[in-house]
Amino acid sequence: MIYPIVAYGDPVLKKKAKEIDKDYPELDKLIENMFETMYNAHGVGLAAPQIGLPIRIFIVDAEPFSEDEELSEEEAKQLKNFKKVFINATILEEKDDEWAFTEGCLSIPDIREDVFRNETIVIKYFDENFKEHTETYGGLAARVIQHEYDHIEGILFTDKLSSLKKRLIKGKLSNISKGKVNADYRMRFPLAKKGR
User: Where is the active site (predicted)?
Assistant: First the structure.
């Protein structure tokens, strides 16, 4: 089932999400539907708050990035099969230099901006079988994880922009929350007029 993506302006995107346990109802189905929703929207990551659920789960599939010619062979290979489920994740450490990369977000269509993030992260999480992992990621894999992790912390990539950049995109963000945007996937707009 493909869920509508919750648009910028919905309070669920600004809430710190709650942990779940392995008895969460129909968890397998939720994960399957999240992947279907993400692929339908041509995304590389999706967090539960983006489908209206304030719970600590996000998914990633960074394979589309593996085609980037600027990547080393090793990084391209890592991204090729980088499909994962993160439940109750906690970033334990962010290290190495910050670097800029142009990010976008399914909840904020038509806005792409450079965001600075640390090169390397150490993250603890449970997978879809509730097996615990502590792993280290770098480069684009780390960036995709950090972006989705921010979602379960109630942070959007636009929150990380300079005050000048925020002022420049304020009108666009307002339009997104009102449903005045063209996305090629279903969205749920918090301020759109009912019956439009």
Answer: 148
